[in-house]
Protein: Phosphoenolpyruvate-protein phosphotransferase
Organism: Oceaniferula flava
Amino acid sequence: AQKELETLREKDTATSDGHRITLSANIEFTNELPQVAQSGAEGVGLFRTEFYLLNGGEMPDEHQQEKVYTEVAKAMNPHLTIVRTLDAGGDKISAEPLSSPEPNPFLGWRGVRVSLTRTALFKEQLRGVLRASTAGKLGVMFPMISGIAEVLAAKELLKESMDELHREGVPFDENIQVGVMIEIPSAAVMADEIAKEVDFLSIGTNDLIQYTVAVDRVNPYVANLYKPTHPAVFRLMDMTVRAAKDNGIWTGVCGEMAAQLLLTPLLVGLGVDELSVGPHMVPSIKKAVRSLSQAECAEMMQQVLKMRTSPDIAEISKNMAYRHY
Ligand code: PEP
Ligand code: MG
């Protein structure tokens, strides 16, 4: 089986009927890069930077950040690396000590909300990414977007950062891909508008599920209610993918759902363009995608979008998976 997975590395990630999907990896640290290369991933779909930026000491400055992003961009070249800007707060490390603890951190000062209030820190990161963008192919992505205003505000700060580098004569990729995470239901609902402002959407199912069904993703008391296959989640994901297609941009999935083999038929059926998973899951997800027919999965999705319960959706996907791999 190991050997089979190794021969897979050289093969395309495409369904049996020729629908190509970019299969990339999620990373948190640069020491994962050898494993990513080994896995056959086509780039990094999610570089979670909060672990690097908030490791206890002082936050790295733009030049230190440039080094790290350059390292990733070089290692992945010619493939795309998507740097997600700081996603502090929620269940993750907090950006700074707060004068009073937040009663509901998941509904609180998190992700791009922090970046849009601490704009100097945010721009430091953006300039670090831009400086590194000539070393390979970099994209930048904003987490915890709830609507169009945050997209515009984040893009404005990106533009300011670009203008500053221009004035300093620092070269960077003028066409760097800019995307947002769709992980809050309001963003999925507004995806048709958001898609007009960005180059890609990446669905963060971990948070999208938690916010859709109002179940804290780390609370054991309600873990049984955290349902990845809840019909509402698929309706929101379908809205997102269709909004992207209508606007000629691509959609990825970088939440855990992308790495769940029994749910791969659903993501293929939605017609997503990219899946980003932990490096160790790359070979088996590739194998699953290669054995599925996109047309058959899309037909299944038509049924899924009419289903009423989570077990029904889990069941139809599992059956498809078992039939093919
Ligand atoms: C997600 O929410 O699905 C996601 C990929 O981001 P994180 O798990 O870092 O919140
Ligand atoms: Mg998230």
